[in-house]
Amino acid sequence: MRYAIVRSGASRSFPDGDPFLGRAVPADAAEVVVHLAGAEFRPAAGRAAVLVELGTECLGFHTGEDPAGEGGNVLGFARYRNGDDPPSALVELVRRPGTSADAVAAARAVFEEAGLAVVVCGDQAGRIVDRLVRPKYNAALRLLDEGLATQGDMDLTCRLGLGYPDGPIERVLRGGLAHHHDVTRALFETYGSAGFAPARRAVVEAQRRGKAAVPPD
User: Fold this and answer.
1) Rounded to an integer, what is the distance from CA 99 to the centroid of its chain?
2) What is the pLDDT of residues 25-68, one digit of tens each?
3) How far is CA 199 from the centre of its chain?
4) At what angle do helices 168-175 and 151-162 cross, to 10 degrees?
5) 55, 71, 165, 183: most buried by Cβ count inside 10 Å?
6) Calpha distance 3→149 (Å, rounded)
7) What predicted TM-score, i.e. pTM, was given to this entire model?
8) Read out DSSP for 110-156?
9) Range 158-174 average pLDDT
10) 41 contacts 11 by C-beta, under 8 angstroms
11) Which domains does the chain have, with CATH numbers?
12) In 3-state terms, what secondary structure has residue 198?
């Protein structure tokens, strides 16, 4: 499936040097148009699919929330990435209630032909992964604050007892507490669920980042 890329600035899913960027073709030869983060979304009715890279926002932010228009050939996507870790091989593909099956198939083909795994989900902020893992990270950070166990003991328990490749605290720290704060705050503002409220340590790190950004007098 041939695709063209529209980009403006950095993409979390496909940073500079990613092979996916090099396989793109000119727009007039493409069946699918991929808008990377920062690029202005433009509908294109004649394409097999139009893809929009998402951050924490819903696809509806780009397309509008008119129920009568929840379909067609436009889909959102995000390649899962833990903070500044390299992007994973997982792409979350976002469809609206009336998105055509042909558009979903075309979008899936673009990513699968690039060697990526694709899961399809509805248009919810945080999609699948962040809605699952962010409350767990918050819970682990709060238990650390409460003195339930040390970071090492909690991470070791999850690795040995649950078979996780890494523990929740070491993973959220590697991804960056400030990044975790930004994601969870966006989800909390959308859903209002206590599990998404940023943990104290993440709030402090975000405050430190903001303080560091202010030049001294």
Assistant:
1) 20
2) 999 999 999 999 888 888 888 999 999 999 999 999 998 887 76
3) 20
4) 110
5) 183
6) 50
7) 0.90
8) HHHTTT-EEEEE-S-TTTTHHHHHHHHHHHHHHHHHTTSS-HHHHHH
9) 91
10) no
11) 3-121 (no CATH), 129-211 (1.10.1040.10)
12) coil
